[in-house]
């Protein structure tokens, strides 16, 4: 199990996180539906499969009842049990799972559960995880229940407006080595107003560090970057330069597994260095954007 990232005084978010991360992972890996069966409301339950498609016309009502979802859940859990992973299966799920965005209004909650990065198999293959699930929950008494979800939604970079002029472009003759990560080697940037944000990290408004893993902290850090850019009228599409300060370069591939989903082509140029960071931070990111 992983430590709950929400503080003790945030009772509802702690409960929801525990239900949809620790308990959900334990149940799936154990192939034990009884662990989570009380976390659902059967009446009116509905599960939608987005199929990683941006086009909502292609989303389908795959689970019209809780029973139909239970049947598929058990089938997937059985198939997953046959897979031999390099790491412990619970650890693998915790590593790729990020749940930080939880919106609560009264007795209703909307949760964004994201999955980043591959699970490595012993045979050399991998199980790719690159989607998000939107859960709808309702509070009944002192407990939260799942009333439905939309699963296998694409991660954010696939749904942005790529036709908009962002004032940056990849030169025709630009090239880079085959092992290069999710970045551009060089960009041409048209003159405009520059927007520069200070280094952002996985820190909430109260000054608390959010997340233990590099995946969790990367997602929260980039979400904070999005908020800072928005305050200046920019988006990640306007970013042309990124500096990354990472505590342990051994976690660089795991950082990239999250990072690559936040940007469309041409991705920003980028520099990364291993650096000592404050508190329990694992990564810090600063960005430069052009506002045309």
Automatic annotation (TrEMBL):
One of its GO terms (molecular function) is deaminase activity. SUPFAM superfamilies: NTF2-like (SSF54427), YjgF-like (SSF55298). GO terms for cellular component: cytosol. It comes from the Bacteria. CDD domains: YjgF_YER057c_UK114_family. InterPro entries: NTF2-like_dom_sf, RutC-like_sf, YjgF/YER057c/UK114. This is RidA family protein. It comes from Ulvibacterium marinum.
